[in-house]
Write a structure and sequence with these properties.
Helix content is 45%, strand content 23%. With 188 residues, the chain is of the alpha+beta class.
Length: 188
């Protein structure tokens, strides 16, 4: 028979933090509270990122309208090109006029390709800011129980220690209650 004293500890515990340094606007946890995986535990101030997102969304909308305008102009240029080719074949228009309209049509086709690329860039910019907005919502990485609440609304939080003592490194600590193990020190 071996008598020993030890500790019951969780194998899986995590201090939940953010990817970015920011001001905490809302903390939705309390000590002893049970949380589910991906449950929102806190939110950071999103005013600056939201402004950038709104700008990117407006640029995307503008790029869409610009592309549509160019598509309409290109269609008109192609119709004029066909019409002018018909007139040149009947010798009612000059080759110079045909060359001018062909160049305009080719130029608009190139502009359309550029505007399609601009549209892709604008969409990716919106996606980046949307991901940043999503990152300002802090979620539980796994189901468990909150054993400590480390931050309050109004405080700054950072994923790394800032060294000054005024910036928290986490919102709270979650422990997976299904991952307990017993640690016992046994003499030789």
């Amino acid at each position: 028979v071996l008598n020993a004293s030890g500790y019951v500890t969780a194998r899986r515990a995590a201090t939940v933090s953010s990817k970015f340094t920011g001001k905490v606007t809302e903390v939705l946890i309390e000590e002893g509270m049970r949380v589910e995986e991906n449950q929102v535990v806190a939110r950071l101030d999103d005013s600056n990122v939201r402004a950038s997102y709104n700008l990117a969304a407006a640029q995307l909308d503008s790029a869409r309208h610009s592309q549509t305008e160019t598509e309409v102009l290109l269609e008109e240029a192609r119709v004029n090109l066909q019409r002018t080719q018909s007139l040149v074949e009947r010798e009612l228009a000059s080759d110079q006029e045909l060359d001018r309209i062909r160049a305009l049509s080719n130029s608009l086709a190139a502009q359309l390709r550029r505007k399609e690329a601009d549209l892709v860039v604008a969409q990716r910019s919106v996606d980046i800011y949307q991901a940043q907005l999503d990152d300002l919502i802090i979620r539980a990485p796994f189901a468990g129980v909150i054993i400590s609440k480390n931050a309050q609304p109004g405080e700054m939080i950072s994923p790394v220690s800032a060294g000054g003592g005024f910036t928290r490194t986490g919102i709270g600590t979650i422990v997976d209650m299904s991952s307990f193990e017993i640690e016992i020190d046994v003499n030789e």
